[in-house]
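Worked example

This section walks through a single chain of length 346. The input is the sequence exactly as stored; nothing has been trimmed or padded.
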Amino acid sequence: MFELKGENSIIKGVVLVAFIATVAMFIAKISIIKNLGFSPLVIGIVLGIIYANTLHTKMPTSIHSGVTFSAKKILRFAIVLYGFRLTFQEIAQVGMDGFLVSLTMLTSTMLIGTFIGIKIFKMDRDTSILTAAGASVCGAAAVLATEPVLKADGYKSAIAVSMVVLFGTISMFLYPVLYETIIKDAVGFLHMTPRQFGIFTGGSVHEVAQVVAIPASIPNASEEMAHSAVIVKMTRVMLIAPMLIILGLILAKTDNSNSKAKLTIPWFAVYFVVVAGFNSLHLIPQNIVDIINKVDTFLLTMAMTALGMGTIFSKFKGAGGAALFTALGMFIWLVIGGFIVVKIIV
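Given that input, the structure is written out below as tokens.
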């Protein structure tokens, strides 16, 4: 009897999350929202946060288990399905230099962000790592994927996502201006070819949607620029699997320094790579893959919405400007450091 009630509560919570996520999907299709590059994931967390700080206390506590289920279980399944968005062939197309840029920017940003967050701005470990993961890999989706490995509180993920949204949006407006006013017609070190700028964009901008939007915002941008940007970005996405495994190894040692280290393998990250490998075989028709990706976007939106629904503003007390300054430090590195890395490698 109790188990049935528990299952019923989960269903009610999941249905509520799904409803809000559906609203987020529709809002994301509005032209002005779409042109700004805001994905349904970002809209979902905003709606979730609004709910958390308005209607949360008026809703029965029984639905909380369903919200938690969406933020944990549905999230991991959605990350696995994310593997259908890329193939090993696409990564090979961009070349070794594009891969090295992705690897260099992911590793350096993760290390820099975690270091300045913890050591310089005295932020807690989980928020520092989550903020760094969002900037170094693929924005909100990376924060969601990293949260289960850290077993972090939901509000810490929300802080990290808010930083991704802020600086990712700035990037979307900054990069086209930089290209048009400085990079395109520059002579010497400041000049970049369309391919170089595409790799620079894909290697340093937060969200996939923002990477797609930047070349689209540049007049007469070549297909080579757009193609290079997206492929390098998706290479960063794939690298999240080894990053999470390495992070799990490090946490196992640091958290169990006085006892035998216990490694919790993020299997969903391993399955993500397996799915990407399967997708590389092209055994499933593309129209079916497109449907899977649409379903996955909805599931990710549900996870993000659930994350927002667990975010109460009062929990942000103590974070102060640490998250903002940490994210700003990473943003400066992504823009300036990313430019230099691309010029050296490509």
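What to look for: The chain has one domain: 2-311+322-345.
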